[in-house]
Amino acid sequence: MSYLPLSAKRLPIWCSNILSRAGRYVKFARGGSSQSTSSNQGLLIMLVNVDDCSSNWPANLFVPALIADAGGEASKHFIEFFTATIRNPNTRLAYQRSAHRFLSWSRRVGLRSLVNIQPAHVATWVELELRRYSVATMKQQLAGLKMLFDWLVVRQVMASNPAHSVRSPRQTIAKGKTPVLDPSEARQLLSSINIASCLGLRDRALIGTMLYTFGRIGAVLMMRVEDVYSQNRRLWVRLHEKGGKLHDMPCHHELEEWLADYIDKCGLAAEPNGWLFPSWDRTAQALGRSRLAHPNAYMMVRRRARVAGIATRINNHTFRATGITAYLLNNGTLEKAAKMANHASTRTTQLYDRRDDKIVLGEVEKVRF
Length: 369
Prior knowledge:
46% helix; two-stranded antiparallel ribbon; 9 strands; 369 residues; disordered N terminus
C-alpha cells in the first residue's frame, strides 16, 4: 500500500471516490497554491491511498515539472520529504508552497533541469519575492528550500545544494506585530456578544478561552469536550499545543462560568469526545459535528469586532497578546507569563508584552507647539 500527496493542478477523476470519503476537495490557483473548499482547511498535501485509485497513476500530476523531469526516483524522494520528514501540517504547507513557488519560477525563467539551478538563481528569487512578502515569510521559505535540497542531495537526486550558500535576509524583532486590545476593548467585545443562542455562547467561550489561557487558536480549536474537566474544585482546560504537547491550565472564574454555561446549555456533555468548538450548521441553525476551521474563527472574530465597534484589525492571535499584556499590567511576572503561555523562553513572551505602548502614547502628547 503506497501513499502519495495529492498536489496536482487538476484533480484526477479516478481519485474522486477517495476525496469523497475524506470529505475534502482542493482547488489550485496560480503558482501552485491552494485553498480547501471545505471547512476542514489544512494541508496543501493530502495523503491519498493510490491503491484505491489506480495502479497506473500519472506521477507528473503530483510534483512540479522540474522534479518530474528528473525521473521517478526524484518524484518519489520529493514526495517523501513532505510526507515522511515533516509532522507539523502548518510547516508542511508552508514548505510545500515555497518549493512550488521556486520550482515554478525556475521553469518560467528557462531552467530545464535541477542541475541547472545555481545559488545565483536562488538568491535572485529571494530578492524578487521580498518585493511581495515579508522578511519573516522569506526566511521561512528559504529554510524550506534548503531542507528540501539537502534531502535531495542525500538521496542523490542533486549533486549539491544550491540554496546552502544563500544568506537569509536579516530581521530584528523587538516587539511583535500582533494587534492588541486595551482591557476595556476586550470587555466591550465580550459584552457585545448575544448569548441567547449556542452560537453566541460558543463565540464567547472561544474568545474567553484564548484571553484567559493565552492559548493559540490552533491549540484551542483542537480541544475536545473532555478537555474541560474539574480538579481541586476548579475547572481546568487541556490545550493541544504545537508538537503534540498538552498544556493544562486552571480557568479564571469568568471563563469557568462561560464554559460551564456553554457546555450545559448546548448539550455538549453528552459527547465528551466531540469538538469543544464545532462549526455552525446554518441549515439546522445549530452546532455542527465538524471542528471550527481557523479561517472561520478569524471571520467570526472580525465580525464580532465590527458589531462591538472596535476599529482595531484584530485576528485570532490578538487574544493571546491581549491576555499576556493584561496579566503583566496587573503586576504579573514575565517568568510566570511564559509558563502560562507555554513558551520555552521569556524572550518569546516579551514579544507579546505591550505595556510600553501606553508609555509611548503618553510621551507623544508632550510634543506641543
